[in-house]
Amino acid sequence: MMASMASLSTPYSSSFLGQKEVRSTPTSGKVFLRGAHPTKAMYGWANSRSKRKPPPVAADGVLNVGKDLGFRRDLHEHYTVPDPQTTVPLGMGSYGVVMKVSCKETGTEYAMKSIPKTPPNKRESKSPNAYLQKLENEVKVMQHVGPSLNVVYLYNVFEDDTHIHLVLEYCRGGELWRRIRNGKYSEAYAAKIIRSILRVVAQCHAKNVIYRDIKPDNFLFLNTRQDSPLKATDFGLATYYTPGEVLTRRCGTPSYLAPEVVMRKYGPEADNWSTGVTVYQLLSGKLPFSSQRGSIKEVLRAVLEDPVVLDDEFWTTKISDGARDLTTRLLDRNPATRLTAQEALEHPWVLAGGEAPDTPLCGSVVQRLQRFGTFPMLKRTVLRYIAPIMLQEDSTLGSLVQVNELYSIFREFDRAGDGRLTLQDLMLGLDKAGYSVDDSEIEQLMTHMDVNRDGVVYYDEFLATMIDWLQVEQYDSEHFHHLVDRAFNTLDGQDQGVIDRRSIGRLLCQQDDTAEECAFIVDKCMGEADTDGDGYISREDFFTLLHTDDHDMLDQYDDRIEHLHMSMDNIEGDGRLVVPKEDNTLYGADGEPMTKS
Q1: CA separation (Å) from 314 to 179, 346, 399, 420?
Q2: Which residues, other chains included, contact 186 with Cβ-Cβ below 8 Å and sequence gap of 6+?
Q3: 103: which strand partners?
Q4: d(CA 121, CA 94)
Q5: Pairwise CA distance, residues 429 & 446, whole Å
Q6: Which residues neighbour 121 within 8 Å (Cβ) at sequence distance 6 or greater?
Q7: Residue 164 vs residues 7, 80, 236, 480: alpha-carbon distances, Å
Q8: pLDDT tens, residue order, the chain (597 aa)
Q9: In order of start, what are the domains of the chain with their CATH numbers?
Q10: Phi and psi of 93, rounded to 5°?
Q11: Which of 206, 380, 443, 495 could in theory staple to 552 by disulfide, Cβ–Cβ 3.0 to 4.6 A?
Q12: Residue 298 to residues 265, 290, 292, 302, 456, Cα–Cα distance (Å)
């Protein structure tokens, strides 16, 4: 049985840390999303040979508003875009308009958010450089958290002389606030909605992102069914933060602002307050803080001073004790004692009717797919290579990561029995196992599983995706760090104590990538790992990249279990994955050894 498990690692077997990769090109089962290479489509240059230009900078160092920001400019070659002057938009806001567009090759419909490069108001026009950085930040945040199924997926980014265009997942179910307005739902349904919102908040905070605009208007239903998944959208106010950092910019929607935001001294806890306001609104149909005169000043005063009414006849007779307790603990004016998003996810009222805290591996497949997708590209690639080596060298980890069960799941999904999963395999496998995931969402998950971007998923890629790396690091940090150190030494081809662009390119760029495409991949990976911006990845940078944050837990992601009925065969074996021992050489995308020079 161990030999058959090892055979699943070919033809893209572990070439990292000593196992050479035998390259071949599958003749069937290719997955080319929306008429383009899946990963290329995601990162913004699918089917495009246009050169990317760096953002133009004036003599004073200020970005020129309305000029090239380096995004693609071939929107109309790939999408049918209606005339905004004669077409009713899907939505409008202070920062742009959302239109329905369609892919010319496949006919698939998307939502396109067009944001002007010129600041829309007088205040932001005073600092155009900051405004453009805000636009680029929205793209960066969505690419970081977007692989989660709780977030509207960003497929592509384009620009022209006047606008940036975000091609997004098209959610047909409308905004959450419309269902609140209708008011026809149970408390159990409200708890399900709050679980979705709390997952978004917890995922953001685990990645050091503050959303800063949690409210029902910013959550969309994927479809019109009553049980439709809920997804966060509009990350225009989201920002990265350093733990312990105090933010001072007052932004968001007045009725949902936390007291500390009003006082211009806040951190990620502010999102939890805004979630509490949403809970209050979902349960009662009204806001806890408002002004009959529509005065923003009066709303802000109420946020700071007015009591939260949870003891009137409605709350004591119509709302459960658990719901009132959660609302009270989220609407705590003291950020230090307010529930965190993770704590709120573990609240009995939120868990009631939901998944059990200790979901078995076969019930957490979709959660694991999502979390792996949020990892940076370089991290996913390195984990794919070290996973089988780790299990071979430490047999005790086989039991910890449930390698036999992982193999059984892979075998159930692999209909052809050829050791690789196609998109169709994944769709049918998840459906048969009892998961409720839309086909377009499975395409999104597949994009991030397919580390080497060949359109199919091999066992080592599946293994890296399914392993709970947070658990591994906590259980055997010494062995994990040793493997990371070996990976760094292999990539450090010049023995200089750093990883350079050439090594990253040889590891990640494929034979059919153009020079521009390869440069884009390398730039992205360097930007994710090079913390000091010196153009190199230090050993400390590399260890930081491979570390999984303690707060990034599986239960923050939607399990999508509809009626789990996956059968697990009893597989004999000690959990070890046998891989051939060769030399300690890393082989690049060209199949040649990356020897030290």
Answers
A1: 20, 26, 51, 56
A2: none
A3: 79
A4: 9
A5: 13
A6: 94
A7: 47, 16, 13, 42
A8: 333 333 333 333 334 454 433 333 333 332 323 333 434 444 444 333 333 444 444 444 444 445 678 888 999 999 999 988 888 888 876 678 999 999 999 999 999 999 998 887 767 766 778 888 888 889 999 998 888 999 999 999 999 999 999 999 999 998 898 877 776 778 888 899 999 999 999 999 999 999 999 999 999 999 988 889 999 999 989 999 999 999 999 999 999 999 999 999 999 999 999 999 999 999 988 899 887 777 899 999 999 999 998 998 889 988 999 999 999 999 999 999 999 999 999 999 998 754 434 445 567 888 999 999 999 899 999 998 888 888 777 666 666 667 788 888 898 899 888 989 999 999 999 988 888 899 999 999 999 998 888 889 999 899 899 888 888 888 778 888 888 999 999 888 777 889 998 888 888 888 888 888 888 888 888 888 888 888 889 999 999 999 888 788 888 888 888 765 544 443 333 333 333 333 444 444 444 555 444
A9: 18-30+360-555 (1.10.238.10), 48-168 (3.30.200.20), 176-351 (1.10.510.10)
A10: -150, 180
A11: 206
A12: 20, 8, 9, 6, 57
Angle (deg, nearest 10), helices 377-393 and 477-491? 120
Q: Rounded to whole angstroms, what are the CA distances from 248 to 245, 260, 334?
A: 10, 9, 17
> In this structure, which amino acid lies at residue 114?
S
Q: Peptide bond before 11: cis, by omega within 30 degrees of 0?
A: yes
- As a whole number of angstroms, the distance between CA 75 and CA 80 comes to 9
d(CA 348, CA 203): 20
Q: Cβ distance 89 to 98 under 8 Å?
A: yes
DSSP sequence for 278-290: HHHHHHHSS-SS-
Question: CA–CA separation, 187 vs 203, rounded Å?
Answer: 24
Residue 313, C-beta contacts closer than 8 angstroms, at least 6 positions apart: none
User: Quick one: DSSP state of residue 222?
Assistant: S
Q: E strands along 124-183, which residues?
A: 154-159, 163-168
CA distance 553 to 555: 6
Cα separation, 363 vs 563, in Å, equals: 10
Residue type, 594: M
Catalytic residue list? 213
Whether this model's pTM surpasses 0.90: no
Q: How far apart are CA 138 and CA 133, in angstroms?
A: 9
113 annotated ligand binder: yes
Measured over the CA atoms of residue 344, residue 345, residue 348 and residue 350, the dihedral's sign is positive
Q: Are 325 and 268 in contact (CB under 8 A)?
A: no
What are the Cα distances from residue 538, in Å, to 176, 322, 505, 541, 545? 45, 49, 16, 5, 11
Single-letter amino acid code for the residue at 242 = T
| Residue from 414, 440, 365, 446 nearest 31 by CA | 446
